[in-house]
Structure formats: C-alpha cells, structure tokens
Amino acid sequence: MKVIAFVGKSDTGKTQLIKRLIVEWKRRERSVSVIKHCSHGFTLDIEGKDTWQFMAAGADNVSMVSPDKIATINKIEGEPDFLKIAETVFPSSDIVIIEGGHKARNIRKIEVLRRGVSETTETPKDELLAIVSDIILEVDTRVFQPDQIGPLADFIENTV
Predict the structure, then answer these.
(1) How is 53-88 classified by DSSP, letter by letter?
(2) Which alpha helices (H) appear in the chain, and where do they start and end?
(3) Can you give the pLDDT at residue 157?
(4) 47 and 119 in one domain?
(5) Coil, strand or helix: which one is 111?
(6) 98 and 32 in a common domain
(7) Interval 1-37: pLDDT, tens
(8) Is there a single domain that holds both residue 67 and residue 118?
C-alpha cells in the first residue's frame, strides 16, 4: 500500500488534482482510497437522528449501512494517525491518498501551489516528496505542472 498526502492551502487545486489521479489510477486498474482530513470537523449524523442519539448516548463507534454504501463514525482523541487509519480501513488498497494532513508525521507529502493563492511551500523538506504548481519554480524538489497527471502518477507509484 502506498500512502501519500496532498497538502496546500484552500483553492490551490488539491481536490481536482486528486480526482484526476484517481481516474488515471483506475484506468491502470489500481484500487484507490481517499482520506479527507477535515481540520475543522464534520457532521455525518444529524442531531436527533438515530446515529446522533447513539453517539450522544456514549457509543464509541456507529455505522450507517445502506444497500450501496457504509459510513462509520469512530471517536478519536488528538491528531489522527493517517497510516493506522489507512491500514485499518483500506487494507486492500494499492494507493491511499490523504487530502490535507499537513501535520501528519511519517507520511510523504506533495504540496500543491497555485499562482495568487499560495506560491511558496510550507512542508518541511524531509517530508516533501514533490510540488505541483502552475508557477515556474527553481527548487531542489521535483515539480510537476497540474496537467502532468500520468507522469505524477508514475512518480508516486515508483517513489512512495
């Protein structure tokens, strides 16, 4: 399993880039999973609904299951351990992408930059695997243009 985080400020194009990589890897018959880091929290269970009531009553985990989907809510404390989550939730995936997670340790990162939004990297050098940017950069790190999906997919598969 290859685990890679895509980091960068909002509106740099992380989601669009990840969507295009998913399409490329699916074309290559790879299994791909995504963990979206929501640093400000999220809600799947609506107040008053059954899942919310179970969590409010003290359940540690609640799953919602339908004929075509499953969603599980697990309580955690502190910063998430993305590697552990990837190994536990997606054990058969070839590639696990984390969108966000800039504070995660022991995970290589690709930082996404965009002219007028974010033009310099913030990722520590020892964690930065590559940069995707629409800006011409002169740096010691590998740089891809946002439309270089095939070469970026190859790079990740061969490097991570």
Answers:
(1) HHHHTT-SEEEEE-SS-EEEEE---SS--HHHHHHH
(2) 14-27, 50-56, 82-89, 149-159
(3) 97
(4) no
(5) strand
(6) yes
(7) 999 999 999 999 999 999 999 999 999 999 999 999 8
(8) no
